[in-house]
Amino acid sequence: MSPTNFGDRLARAVARRESQIVCGLDPDPQRLWPAAAGVAAHCRAVIEAVAPAVVAVKPQLACFERLGAPGWDALAATVAHAREHGLLVLLDGKRGDVPVTARIYAESLVGALGGDAFTVNPLLGRDALAPLVDRARGAGAAAFLLVRTSNPGAADVMDLELAGGGTVWERLATLADELGEAGEAGLKDVGAVVGATEPAHLARMRELMPRTPLLLPGVGAQGGDVAALAPAFAPGRAGGLVSASRSIVDAYEQAGGDPGEAARREAERLRALAWTLP
Length: 278
Description:
With 278 residues, the protein is of the alpha/beta class. The chain has helices at residues 6-17, 39-50, 61-65, 69-84, 99-112, 126-138, 168-179, 202-208, 246-249, 251-255, 259-275, and strands at residues 21-25, 56-59, 88-95, 117-120, 142-148, 190-194, 214-216, 240-244. The two termini are 33 Å apart.
């Protein structure tokens, strides 16, 4: 039996959980929750706190890789715990390499690491993306291409004008749209990372990628505003995934009290805001 298109899986998950929120997991060994005995325990506690309000978690692979072998063990435990709570797992590693190496990355991301989706650097072009997209599609997973990221320095390259017209990010958006295949719900199985810090781009993004799921990082600590993201949801509620990390996990530092309760309240606040937009 062929795997289910990721766009269909995403649409069902969003409808079932009534959430478009992705909680980023960026564990810092120096800033774990007070009761957490290590990175794995910290991530477990975060997942248990926010699971009712989110549709996915987004482990930042660098935060686990820097710990060496124990970090890989913590990542495996985190992925397994997210699955126990019915959450999608989006692995944030921004991989990208020549085709032969890209194929190996793909095997790791959806094979050994068990991701439902992963982020990809598309600047090596279509041939380097093909192994990542094809392997993800074969597993019912998705590659999310970096199209216009949330950091200020994105303008240095992604906003550059091309000789043939348009910007680099517009060309990347077109590439994401061309690589994706739509499922029954209408959403494609190749996504795009579009920073929530630049909402003015969203209308144009939707012209170029009308059916592409958009991952929208930058809400909260980076200054992105959920209320400005309405164009992302033009294809339906699952058209946009609002990603927040520090603003959820570190909410207790501002609000006080129990870290889990503070994280749950912030995740629920974001969920309610995003759910009213479509």
